[in-house]
Design a protein that fits this description.
The protein has 509 residues and is mostly helical. The chain has 20 helices and 12 strands. The longest helix has 19 residues. The relative contact order is 0.08. The chain is elongated and about 110 Å long.
Length: 509
């Protein structure tokens, strides 16, 4: 049987980075086994739907390169892949369970159930309480039919028989056992005829031929109900294998990483930015923080899975070859943002200058900077070993695009000597007259200039760097000068000379 897996998020807001990891592991497992990766949108809870969330999910998958073979927005012959488009399908299956004694109609009003919860602490609708409630197990058949014919609001609940052990062979956690006496009678079909997650999930997985369910460990307790549903439908022979992934923990290691932790720790916890109705519900993403998608994928892959070696850098194709569910840990994985930054640095350094130029272009455009390919490629060449984020190219390296806006005063005071003014002026004139303005020619010309005047590199190079970049950080001086060109370089040196004199107090401010 061909492997078929699905990523099945609910469009209730931004897709948390933990959801991306779930999608990634499903994708890797499918590709490793030459199977099919499906995107299914589970929107049965209509009250929690958020406009734009579905498009956000699809965009996030495309940005990370986890392209589904089938699903919403991707086609396929097992659709529809949006559960709200399959609404008419589920009622038939719920009533089939009723007919075979595995489910029942429940006519209790929400108000009556609320009153029951008020009267009884920890009230649960289960084998102990259902006989005292209003349902097709306690009403005579003719009364049930009358209520149904009259269109009286009702739900369909799973009938969980007590006294059973439900064994689940989890591919990550091994044998997991549940006691049916501890389970409630889950609602399968709501009063508006929309299915709950439990019914729709099982029906869709069966009809779509899902062979493996790889999802977060928060769904492990629900799996007992799901096994009972497979039994009730007589689908145990085609029941998928389950694998429940470990939690992603907060950076401090205590508790599950939440969407609010992004603001708390000043880190992205979503793949791409999400604009909510309020600032509190709006979040930045890894993309907007300046990450390459390949770095995010590599980082996420190792948050719960290990390759069995000390290797850390893997392309998506290499992850496919190496991946196995057996190497997924049971314990939670700490969200180490410093490690994510390290991955991004490595991927930026490994990228070609032309590729980086493509990433820099929209950032430069947003600031009104120069954006021709040759110039941006040179910026990438000069800065790629010095940045952590893509945004650093235009933020830390802004001086390659526009005049210096601020100088390192402390360093200028340390390096500038008023006695150097005539020398610096002569250097500026020499550079203004230099015919060849490439880095090698400039370096040779400046070194000859210093040798003729008995100057040391420390006398001049630091001042040149401060003049061109405003800081002692940045690319090699002569590489910067070549990129800036003669006119801009000379102008910056003259502007810096005025600044040095002001800092040294030799001219009026």
């Amino acid at each position: 049987m061909s492997v078929r897996v699905r990523f099945a998020p609910s469009p209730t807001g931004a897709l948390h980075i933990g959801g991306v990891r779930t999608a990634l592991y499903n994708y890797l497992f499918a590709r490793k086994n030459k199977g099919t990766f499906i995107l299914r949108i589970e929107d049965t809870d209509q009250n929690r739907l958020v406009p734009g969330a579905e498009d956000y999910i699809i965009e996030a998958l495309k940005w990370t390169g986890l392209i589904p073979d089938e699903g919403v927005g991707f086609g396929g012959d097992k659709g529809p892949y949006r559960q709200s488009d399959r609404k008419d399908l589920y009622k038939k299956y719920a009533e089939q369970l009723v007919e075979h004694g595995h489910a029942y109609y429940a006519f209790d009003t929400p108000e009556a159930l609320d009153a029951q919860r008020q009267a009884e602490a920890n009230f649960t609708y289960n084998h102990q309480t259902r006989d005292s409630l209003i349902n097709s197990l306690t009403l005579p058949p003719n009364a049930v039919q009358a209520k149904l014919l009259a269109g009286e609001p009702h739900v369909i609940r799973l009938k969980v028989e007590p006294g059973q052990e439900i064994h689940i062979r989890d591919l990550i956690r091994g044998d997991v056992v549940f006691q049916s006496s501890e389970l409630d009678d889950k609602v399968l079909l709501k009063a508006d005829s929309m299915p709950t997650y439990h019914l729709a999930n099982i029906v869709d997985d069966h009809l779509m031929g899902i062979t493996h369910v790889i999802r977060g460990e928060e769904w492990l307790p629900s799996t007992a109900h799901h096994v009972l549903l497979y039994r009730g439908f007589g689908w145990t022979q085609t029941m998928p294998q389950f694998a429940h992934l470990p939690l992603i923990l907060k950076p401090v290691g205590n508790g599950k990483l939440s969407k609010r932790d992004g603001a708390k720790f000043g880190i992205p916890v979503f793949p791409i930015a999400w604009q909510g109705d309020t600032p509190e519900d709006s979040f930045t993403g890894f993309r907007e923080a300046g990450f390459l998608p390949q770095a995010v994928i590599n980082f996420m892959a190792l948050m719960g899975w290990h390759p069995g070696s000390d290797d850390e850098i893997f392309s998506l194709d290499e992850l496919v070859r190496q991946f196995s569910i057996e190497h997924i840990s049971k314990s939670g994985a700490r969200f180490d943002y410093e490690k994510a930054k390290w991955f991004n640095q490595r991927y930026i350094q490994a990228a070609t200058d032309a590729e980086l130029a493509g990433h820099i272009r929209p950032l430069a455009e947003a600031r009104g900077y120069r954006t021709d390919a040759a110039f941006l490629t040179s910026v990438a060449t000069l800065m790629k070993e010095r940045v952590t984020f893509l945004s650093d190219f235009v933020e830390q390296g802004y001086f390659l695009f526009e005049p210096v806006s601020a100088y390192d005063d402390a360093m200028a005071q340390k390096k500038w000597n008023p006695a150097l003014q005539p020398v610096f002026e002569a250097l500026i004139e020499m550079l203004d007259q230099t015919p060849a303005f490439d880095a090698a020619s400039l370096e040779a010309a400046v070194k000859q200039f210093m040798q003729e005047r008995g100057l040391k590199p420390g006398d001049i190079f630091s001042l040149l760097r401060l003049s061109l970049a405003g800081t002692m950080q940045g690319p090699a001086v002569f590489d910067m000068a070549e990129l800036l060109g003669k006119a801009d370089t000379v102008l910056r040196l003259r502007t810096a000379l005025e600044y040095f004199n002001r800092v040294a107090g030799t001219t009026a401010p």
